[in-house]
Design brief:
5-stranded mixed β-sheet; 9-stranded mixed β-sheet; 256 residues; 16 strands; alpha+beta; globular
């Protein structure tokens, strides 16, 4: 690892262990310059903090703000992955961001050689199931969402925890017509239609698999990836019941 990766990994490791956010302006943090360096921080943290019970992480997040931006991804710690309905009242969080997403699950293992032959069309055949998901968003940086993009990426794209609804067989839908509703406590419901940033949640699959198989020999069957928010980043409060529903797909909830 280079000095920038070491410095950022050390700062985030300390933040995870102490519960005290690190300063994104500290010496060394600004030296992080590439997506590859941010990805190297993920693996350094995972090894140092013993995040995964399996040789290859089984849950990931992936997404992009728009079709003109690169898809980025991060492997997620086993701790903090819950089935819906979930209870996060004892989960430590500085902020309580909420994202409503669709999670996809691989039905077979995937190697780098297979990924090299995939197309945006054929990649759908790897997916066996989908589920409504809620990502809880937090930051280990004092600057939170105002921290530089690469530092937020290094911080697992500001991931805190993931709630997964019931799985159902994957099918290709008219995503432009897909309706989504998210509620955080007593705040007005947020309703969206066709609002995925890439138009289709499965659009993250091929870039994610390319990045992931550059790090590991194969991605196991049953691996789950979340695909990006449909409602932006919502702000919840302690005590809120967060509920997300995608019409015709399912729902998920978590008590904060």
């Amino acid at each position: 690892m280079d000095e920038a990766v070491n410095a950022v990994a050390a700062a985030l490791q300390q933040a995870h262990r102490s519960g005290v956010a690190a300063d994104a302006l500290q010496p060394g943090a600004a030296a992080l310059q590439t997506l590859a360096q941010a990805g190297a921080v993920h693996w350094a943290l995972g090894r140092a903090l013993d995040w995964w019970a399996t040789p290859v992480p089984l849950r990931w997040k992936a997404g992009a703000p728009d079709a003109g931006s690169p898809v980025t991804c991060a492997p997620l710690p086993d701790r903090g992955i819950w089935d819906s309905p979930a209870d996060a009242r004892a989960w430590p969080m500085q902020m309580r961001g909420v994202e409503a997403e669709i999670a996809l699950r691989l039905g077979q293992p995937v190697t780098a050689a297979q990924v090299a032959r995939l197309t945006p069309e054929s990649v759908h055949g790897l997916v066996d199931a989908m589920a409504v998901s809620i990502e809880l968003v937090d930051s280990r940086w004092q600057q939170a969402m105002d921290a530089p993009d690469l530092l937020r990426l290094a911080d697992l794209q500001s991931h805190s925890a993931l709630v997964l609804g019931a799985w159902q067989p994957y099918r290709r839908l008219d995503w432009q017509a897909q309706a989504c509703t998210a509620r955080c406590g007593a705040a007005p419901a947020v309703q969206r239609q066709g609002s995925h940033s890439l138009g289709d949640p499965a659009a993250v699959l091929l870039p994610w698999l390319r990045q992931a198989t550059a790090q590991v020999a194969a991605i196991p069957a049953g691996t789950v990836v979340t695909t990006g928010t449909w409602v932006g980043l919502l702000q919840a409060r302690p005590g809120d019941l967060v509920q997300v529903a995608f019409a015709g797909i399912g729902q998920a909830s978590v008590q904060l």
